[in-house]
Design brief:
Largest sheet: 3 strands, mixed
Strand content: 15-25%
Radius of gyration: 22 Å
Order of helices and strands: EHHEEH
Number of helices: 3
Number of domains: 1
Distance between the termini: 51 Å
CATH architecture: 3-Layer(aba) Sandwich
Helix content: 40-55%
CATH topology: YefM-like fold
Structural class: alpha+beta
Number of strands: 3
CATH superfamily: YefM-like domain
CATH class: Alpha Beta
């Protein structure tokens, strides 16, 4: 993630907005402290898709249709 100071943001707003439009996330700092983030409007959906891809790469699929030996008690009382 790119970081930019508020003072630089003012000078480069159109360049920064173009980066965000292309999918970048920009952290905005004031006196060295992060005060905001600029994210693309559909960031949540894209991030969720990326996470699913990451999970899919490391996930292990096992047999979920065969019976198991464990006995479950379905009575909640």
């Amino acid at each position: 993630m790119e970081t930019i100071a508020v003072s630089n943001l003012r000078a480069k707003i159109m360049t920064i907005l173009k980066k965000v439009e292309n999918g970048s996330i920009i952290k905005i700092t004031s006196r060295g402290k992060i005060v905001a983030k600029l994210v693309p409007p559909d960031f949540t959906k894209k991030r969720a898709e990326q996470k699913l891809i990451e999970i899919g790469e490391s996930a292990k699929f096992i047999d979920i249709t065969s019976p198991i030996e464990e006995v479950w008690n379905s009575d909640n009382s």
